[in-house]
Amino acid sequence: MGELEQKLVWHGRTKRKAWMVWGGWFAITLLTIYCWMEMTEDTIWFFVLDAPVQAADLIDRMFPPEWSYIHLLYKALWDTLNIATLGTLLGVILAFPVAFLAARNTTPSVVFVRPIALLIIASSRSINSLIWALLLVTILGPGILAGVIAIGLRSIGFVAKLLYESIEEVNGTSVEAIESTGASRFQTINYAIIPQILPAFLGITIFRWDINIRESTILGLVGAGGIGLFLSSSLNVLAWPQVTLIILVILATVVVSEFLSAKVRELLI
Amino acid sequence: MRTWQRPHYLVPDKRWRIALWIVFALYLVIGISSVEVNWQRAYEGLERGMRFMEGFVNPNFSRRAADIYSGILESLTMTVTSTVVGILLSIPFGMGAARNISPKPIYLFCRSFIAVSRSMQEVIVAIFLVALFGFGAFAGFLTLTYATIGFLGKLLAEEIEEIDNKQLEAISSTGASWLQRVHIAIWPQVMPRMIGLSFYRFDINFRESAVIGIVGAGGIGATLNTSIDRYEYDSAGAILILIILIVLACEYFSGWIRKWVS
């Protein structure tokens, strides 16, 4: 009976692991405190403390929204939808070959071609469409075209990454079956791989379209067309009732596109 | 003689397929024709495009070294603080938005907060917060924190709703309090994925921190904006390369952590 009275309490972890976890938390805490101090060095606390007053004032100026402004927004909204849709198409067309070059089982060369494809994916994914738009506006001039290309460039990485992952997961048996008939590399891809990834591909495309609608609403801030253009000009003249209306329109668009994309993806699966 | 044809899985009816293609083609015609292109301007821009390519291949880190350094540092500090604070705040919101462990009024409140936070673009939030809190990193920090709460809160709530109920029942049957149930039965089940998602959000926050600088919320975006506006494509290329490298490093690191955790 003596053994049972040992004062052993249940522990979740071994001692060494517990120390490591503590060390990790300690390091994260220190890092956060350091970053906080570094970040707030230039903060003017008067403005921060003043913010509630400012917020009340801003809300007071923002309402009611200027409903009569809406007739100017229809065309801008149509432009925004076009930027998102055409940009998604462009991105998808460019992403399709990149995905096949990046997938281990379809790439022509794991050593030479795959790293290049992965680099394209990484660069496109790391840079936000607003930054692409900023660049393209200085190159192509302001307008919808810069927006379409910006959205397209940003979509390549996203679509190609998800697509190449699903290519790598295809069922090898059907690939082997097609290969054993003496099919060429291209025919194998066409008959064994594409039918397997098609639903995933359409799902990814619609998902990206939904994200692109969101992103294209703000591209106008840097001059790349769409409803953001109106947002930026209303902000510049501090026409807050117009800003409220534009934001409501943007929110409604985002909600509707999210609903549509969810419904279509449900149908696909 | 009939030859084999590939079956159509998605839209089996031929008439529907043709109709869909016609709608698609019509949209393409209308959509593309609404894009007004100033070809003269685009042609002139080609030379600038070439210079940007050159700048990307041949980046200049030294001309704006001081600005780039302070911008990147500001972006990174903003990212760290906003991710940490965002995670801490997303835990109560996420638990509140999980159907199985919270009462209805709290559930509705947390769900609607998360929905609002998710449907607002970071850049738009940043515009307002800059107007309220003044230019600088603090507005950026608040923007990213707000976005993090929506993102992680939603995922955490879904994660909690999908837990294995047996463990929760087992712990409840010992007479554990609500806090003990959360700590012993729920937390271990959602922890590994939460850590992975937190690192993913860190990554997103860094990328976003490069963007919200354009509207004045601190970080590398302001430096990038200036260098693009002055057509200094070699400095812009340097900044973009740094952003890509940092994002890649984050991704690699988070993959390593995830492997270690699970």
UniProtKB/TrEMBL annotation, chain A:
InterPro entries listed in its UniProt record: MetI-like (IPR000515), MetI-like_sf (IPR035906), PhnE/PtxC (IPR005769)
Localization of this protein: Cell membrane
GO cellular component: plasma membrane
TM region(s), chain numbering: 20-37, 80-100, 106-123, 130-153, 216-233, 239-260
Keyword Aminoacyl-tRNA synthetase part of the UniProt annotation: no
GO molecular function: ABC-type phosphonate transporter activity
Keyword Membrane: yes
Domain of life assignment: Bacteria
Topology of this chain in the membrane: Multi-pass membrane protein
Protein's UniProt name: Phosphonate transport system permease protein
Organism per entry: Marinomonas pollencensis
TrEMBL record, chain B:
Gene Ontology cellular-component annotations: plasma membrane
Chief location category: membrane
Topological category with respect to the lipid bilayer: Multi-pass membrane protein
Domain of life where this protein originates: Bacteria
Cellular localisation: Cell membrane
Keyword Membrane (UniProt): yes
GO molecular function: ABC-type phosphonate transporter activity
Annotated TM spans: 20-39, 83-102, 123-149, 236-257
Keywords: Cell membrane, Membrane, Transmembrane, Transmembrane helix, Transport
Annotated ranges, domain ABC transmembrane type-1: 72-254
Protein family per UniProt: Belongs to the binding-protein-dependent transport system permease family.
Name of the featured protein: Phosphonate transport system permease protein
